[in-house]
Amino acid sequence: MLATAILLASTLMQQGADPVPGLVFVEGGNVTVGADRKDIDALILKKPESAEQLGGMTPRSRQKVEGFYIGPTEVTNEMYLRFVQATGHQPPQAWATISKDMRLALIVEFKKTDPNANLNTHFPRWWEANWQKEEWVFVNPAGKEEHFPIGWDMLGGIALEPVTTITWYDAMAYCGWAGLRLPTEFEWIKAARGGDERAWPFGDKFDAKVVAFETTSPSTMAYKLLPVNSFPGNASPAGCVDMAGNVWEFTSSGYDPLPGFKGYQLTGKGNDKILVYPNFDPASAVLKGGSYMNPDFVTSIDTRVGILKSFRAPIIGFRVAASTLVGQSAMQNASAELSDKLFRGTAARHFDFGATIGIERRRYADLDAAAAYRADPPKPIKATTPPAGYAIFDGYECLAVTPVAKLEFAALDKLEREAKENGPVPIAMLMTTAALAAPNAVPGTYTIAYAGEFDENEILELGASLPVKIAERRPEGEVVALAERGENPVDFAGLTLEPRTQYLVIIDAELKACGAIPLDGTGKPVSKMARTAEPGLVINLDRDRIDFTLPVSDGSRKIWNFKFHLEPVGPDGSLARTGYWKGDYAVVEPKPDSAGK
Fold it and tell me: Distance between terminal CA atoms of the chain?
């Protein structure tokens, strides 16, 4: 028998240096954030009615940003179409096919309840409620029914325009499907500005010939939504186009004050006091970049506004981003699916996403097929071609775990006591787009928790089952004495557990324990000095499984080390394969059989 061979696999995103289709890499480093107070005060004195918005752009500071990936363009209609086709998500209202007669009928319908109604204000809610129906029945003023078909189509002439009339939540749904995320405000600024203090992505001097805004030059291009890359000359240092004008872009950041902001007042004309106390709202999303309906100064890098996440508008779109660590972006999105009841506060705040370990697989649509569907936009708008790095995402696969930031137990007996008295203790989150054969689980997002070990009675108390060989020898009708323990929020019904075996359990958003991972002698959690434990992921071809070594900090100088394995499967069998996944992993080659094969 030959010794098991362990080989290092190639990686796609090692140290953030490798190219990723559909994304460009932005070097980490310091970035200038916020506008100069003197410049803003001068603008406020000219436009006192905008004091709140302008003041929220200050003060200027330097902030550190880690390296990351970002889309070279906003997400286009043809990119969003693949998401809608794959998931059945609501198509943008801009794609609705409405005849002239239906348009007039809708206006009449809306005015029945609001005399001031118009399509811009009322159609978004109507579309959200009706887009899945086959037809709309309108009762006209004469009392006669008129039947209008309801449909949508992403026309080839708008394929390369940024997708609009979508909410922040729609953008997040797209990111989750593609294994991506929205950029933070500071990341967006870094991609637009680079390492200097330029006012626009293309330099310090505004150029009306390279920005889609309200007075674009020539005037035939003004006040129009344009295809991406209509002005290659407006590219940022990172190679991102249209970060000034065209459409506002959602970020993942809440509309909080910039670091160091303090409210103040100015003295305007006639000694009028101008209060600069912006109405910050962390529940609102920061928009960046300005749009084709805004003046030039609004398209500067420092401009920021807050908007309700449920708001839709034809001037708002988004571009995607990704962390350099495999699986991290997907895990950050998926964390919202976890139950907060297992944590003290919001679940997502309890994880160290920078310590994610996993493997992933990105899928892309055929660009040639997409290009063949495109059509020339209506004149005078000119057809364009996407910039370098452009791609159409077509789904994402991932198997990854992210540890909790802190597991505050000094010894194993204390960890066991907590699990015994109050239920499983969360140690990580798991995201899998593949079904798992072991533990038996469907694709989804789960909390991984330490459950400890149980005797026969305790297993039955939990509502779990004993193995048949044990259950058959127990006296029929044996009464189980209930142990005194705290409230256990997790439902163990349906699991079969071996007595005196330590387990991790995976728990869904409904607090159902969907699967159990036994920890053998080498897998039992051990507390070690931090320098002695490293995260690890091994594609074990010998056993058709993925082996994880997961360090979890105890909040001091020690870590808890957990070792376990998962068995992902697909339609064609085991997904413990090399060449299928990208990421940082080692490989255990199969052992030869007795014939030496």
Answer: 10
